[in-house]
Amino acid sequence: MHEFLAYLWFFILAFELFMYVILDGMDLGIGVWALFDKNEDHTSAGLSIISPFWDANETWLIMAGGILFGAFPAVYAIGANALYIPIMILIFGLIFRAVAIEFREHSKRKRLWDVLFGFGSLAAIFGQGFAVGGLFGGIKIGPHGFAGSPWDFLTPFSFILSFGFLFGYMMLGSSYTVLKTEGEFQKINYTRVFISAILSTVLTVTGLILLPFLNLPEMKMWLSSPYKYLLGTLYILAAFIISMIILNTRAKKHENGLYLWVSFLFVDMFAAGVFEIFPYIVPPDVKIIDVASPDESLIAMLIGIGMVIPVILAYNLYIKRHFRGKIKKETSYYG
Amino acid sequence: MDPLFLSRLQFAVTTAFHMLWPLLSIGLSFMMVILEILWLKTKNEVYYRHERFWSKIFLLTFGIGVASGLVLEFEFGTNWAGFSQVVGGFFGNILGFEGSMAFALEAAFLALFIFGWGKISNRAHLVSTIMVAFGASLSAWWIMDANSWMQTPTGVKIVNGSIVSINYLQAILNPFATISFWHMWIACIETTIFFVAGISAYYILKNQNTEFFLKIFKISVIIAIFATPLQVYLGDLSGKAVGDYQPATLAAMESHWNTNPAGTGATWHLIAIPDRTKEMNSFVINMPIPGLMSFLDTGSFTAQVKGLKDFPPEDRGPIILPFYSFRLMVLIGFIMVFMMLWALWYWVKGYLKYENASKRKWFWKIWYWGFPLGFIATELGWITREVGRQPWIIYGIMRTSEGVSNLTTSQVMVTLTAFIATYVLLFALFVVFVRKIIKTGPDLKSPIPKLKEAKENA
Fold it and tell me: CATH number of the domain at A2-139+147-321, please?
């Protein structure tokens, strides 16, 4: 029973994080691309896409935080303690992103806020990359909790992973913009998807070449994983999806298809990430089963959170339905 | 300065800053539900115009609230790992409940509330507005519940630093939970109506859109008739609950050293300078009503109130901060009641009519300067509550010093400085942009979304 509940919560947590990555990752990607916009109207268009939803998208991170705190308190506590610096980078990034979106609407000097919007998004992405990189890289635990140094997260692996997050989110953001816009800005975004897909490929190849020199924890986990064949399949699938994405951007058709392929890539890579660490939660030592809360608390969470998740999905779908189709110019904040 | 002190300071700064925004967004969302219902019922466009006007400020508030709230969600882990690891199995659940039951609802329906005007039916829009307000208030319930459990930790059995059993009913309905939630919720309403009325007074003083703003001023006064006396009552109940469950905190709040002998009443100090080493007050000004402290804290003029000396020195928290912030909060609570009565009297006298409104300059000036009262009172109340709980992080179970993370001084120093700098900047920018919204004034011209139901009836 305990094992079942612990694993169930691990996968619910993974689902929440995936929802965050796929939804807010898009917002953050659009934010980074805003730094490259030459035309003010383009940034406004990008913001029109995300402004109704960025708060709701950030909710998934807040829920994931609550679940981690409630179901795996030791991981939440020791993890956040160890990853103090990346989490603070993430937090400050999200603060600046949020206020840039809100204040820009009222300001005449939009460019200033666009820069803040872009750098806030960038910081949030690197915060996430360093945090996940630090977690995968292993955390030193002593008898009184975290026993490492605050800079342990800063490894070549977490750098590579951060850039992976960056290029992935940029791909996600621009492919969604393709779906939501028309004309010149859409064309630009076809190119942006192409660029980010190429950058991701280059990063992966570089990572593979550096592999023997870096002694990457990722590699050790991969080789010792009971799911190594599944993981291998997922990685081969990823390579196939990337080539489909590149082909699609060249064809400049199937605008829905492009976003779907990118989302598929995220599902694939996220699943690979989850199975890479399962049944551990903080590799290489801490197993899910060892750190899960008592059964009664996991059951209470099923009632208070687990059963609510389908409701959340339902009303989010209901709300999204009203925002279908291409964004219109007049869909400004208070229009 | 050690990481413990800096972490406490950082948590205090980030909480005090975060609190400002939900205070206003919970209250404004409630107000917007009222305005929307009034609009749909009376078909009077003034209510619609008001809702749109205040929703601009609401949105700014909400945005900063989300961003600063996320900080707290992670700060329990980053700075209070010792605490989080032990109590996550219960405390973390409650934060998870808040995220999934309340905050997700509020944030999602915000999209329809802001962008849905004219696109969805009026009924669907009203439902969205209600969902935003309901989500916001439910959020306050869970957050206050989690905090109340730290104050009166019932229902959770902790042995050797881990939870062995949880009685959810007892833990969720811990002694402070209900009273603290209502005290805070009414604080949100009270803060908001004084903020709204203050801005309205500003317009009336300037004689801009006077008639338009008299309307919302009167709505605020009507709400104040219920909210201000109710808050005094809830405050009184909260104080008595502190006496019942945290006697050491009450003694500190009253700077009360010696338990009064049975049969005599304890005197209430208006001002006190406590001396910790001599265990007495080196200076006091008392209220000349015998037994007033006993009466205020228990309801009887001769009841015993435990003094600080009854508690070992290591279990006594700071005195000056809770003592004065408590008194100032109470003072502001009463000022708000008197301002409500003043407005009511003027209303009855007919001074609030459009043609008379410009004459009573002092009345409007004082209401204008009353706009931050609720924020200040709530911050003071929060200081009383949190500082009063010290030296405990979980009252009677875990000391604050046991809850802190393993951090270096420079780590916390850097983030604390960054938080202060960022928050000062955000606060200043918020003021700038709200002034801008106020200078621009309400939009009284743009077309109103069609009243679909009204058309069908016609």
Answer: 1.20.1630
